[in-house]
Amino acid sequence: MTNRIFNFAAGPAVLPEPVLEEARRDLLALPGVGMSVMEISHRSKTFEAIIQGCEADIRELAGISSDYHVLFLQGGASLQFAMVPMNLLPAGGKADYIVTGSWGKKAVKEAQKIGTVQIAGSTEPENFTRVPAASELKLDPAAAYVHYTSNETIHGVEWQQEPQTADVALVCDASSDIFSRPIEVGKYGLIYAGAQKNLGPSGVTLVIVRNDLLERGPKNLPAMLDYRVQAENKSLYNTPPAFGVYIMGLTIKWLLAAGGLEAIGRQNAAKAKLLYDAIDASGGYYRPHARPGHRSHMNVTFRLPAEDREKKFVAEATAAHLDGLKGHRSVGGIRASIYNAFPKAGVEKLVEFMQEFATKNG
Ligand code: PMP
After folding, report:
1. 260-361: same fold as 18-257?
2. Which CATH class is domain 260-361?
3. Which of 143, 204, 248, 316 could join 96 via S-S bond, C-beta 3.0 to 4.6 A?
4. Does residue 173 carry a catalytic annotation?
5. pLDDT tens digits for the chain (362 residues)?
6. Is 308 helix (H, G, I), strand (E, B) or coil?
7. CA distance 192 to 194
């Protein structure tokens, strides 16, 4: 592998090189099987071992007890915006949503089609530069659940600790920071994440759901949208996204071999610190979007003194094999996504590039 560049894309994003190498090696024929993982029945013993092995490894990685189901679904995190209220928000009930960015807003929009949504907290008036303090939250003890987004991919704002919701089930969209640091799954009712940032390719969505919540859903949901049906069928109600599950399995094994969530959390914090330190040391040339204490370890967002310089920055960075740095159009500026698989060497190269760019274009 000599021609890979540093890929700062927000998702689909960089995958661990050893995972891609193994997938390439076994692409034509899985060892002892003689067929590609894409060519075998999802009911075969081989695939059963792959999906069950992936689940077992996820349980080991995150310490997930038998109180939870681990599901592999389709439709991305966006379908979870709808499935969560369809399954967990009873007729006449209310759900609390904490909004810290664009994805949380989208989750609200979908949930409003299903039932009553209460905004328990929002930092939109401050352009989503932070998460709310506990004292700002208006949580309803009668809510069916509280939904929040642990990391807002577009704004680069991340919760350092989950909100405290007492007995109300906590539901988390963890699409862009799942398994990037230790997590106490026991504090959650449901966690969901599209795979295409920290877990594998797009097309598979991980859902971790507490068993008792499965019973809440109405009995007449379409089968594919019913967590209970998916759980009873071990995510094999229909043909699953087999290749995605396979790559997720390899990615989880790579995480375990790298020392698990404590170790990857330390690496991610160190990578993020390099970038934020460079921003803070730039004398105001680079202006961070998120406030200290709320800054994402996964998506580092910042502006330059003028838009034309941001354009130049992105163009010159791309030419220097630092790809995917253009910020989302709603925030502008630069976004460096540095997920689990993003190498520290790439962050170091970006820091060097930033220092040179500021000197030349001050
Ligand atoms: N939530 C978050 C936090 C995201 O970053 C994204 C995708 N970037 C989504 C939801 C939507 O995910 P999907 O494209 O898998 O539906």
Report:
1. no
2. alpha beta
3. 143
4. yes
5. 568 999 999 999 999 999 999 999 999 999 999 999 999 999 999 999 999 999 999 999 999 999 999 999 999 999 999 999 999 999 999 999 999 999 999 999 999 999 999 999 999 999 999 999 999 999 999 999 999 999 999 999 999 999 999 999 999 999 999 999 999 999 999 999 999 999 999 999 999 999 999 998 999 999 999 999 999 999 999 999 999 999 999 999 999 999 999 999 999 999 999 999 999 999 999 999 999 999 999 999 999 999 999 999 999 999 999 999 999 998 999 999 999 999 999 999 999 999 999 999 98
6. helix
7. 7
Does residue 254 carry a catalytic annotation? no
Is the CB–ligand 1 distance for residue 175 below 6 Å?
yes
Measure 325 CA to ligand 1 centroid, in angstroms.
18
As a whole number of angstroms, the distance between CA 281 and CA 81 comes to 39
Beta bridge partners of 71: 207
| Domain range list for the chain | 18-257, 260-361
CA distance 314 to 303: 12
Among the listed residues 57, 96, 159, 173, the single catalytic one is: 173
From 98, 100, 103, 177, the mutation candidate for ligand 1 (largest count of ligand atoms within 8 A of CB) is 103
Would strands 151-152 and 157-158 be described as parallel, antiparallel, or unpaired?
antiparallel
CB under 8 Å to 158, separation ≥6 — which residues?
131, 150, 151, 152, 177, 290, 294, 295, 296, 297, 298
Which position has the token pair 């094994």?
253
Phi, psi of 148 (to 5 degrees): -145, 170
Active site residue 234: no
Residue 189 and residue 213 in contact, taking contact as beta carbons nearer than 8 Å:
yes
Pick the closest to residue 234 from 48, 63, 62 (CA basis): 48
| CATH class name, domain 18-257 | alpha beta
Pocket-testing residue among 84, 153, 157, 207, ligand 1, by greatest number of atoms within 8 A of Cβ: 153
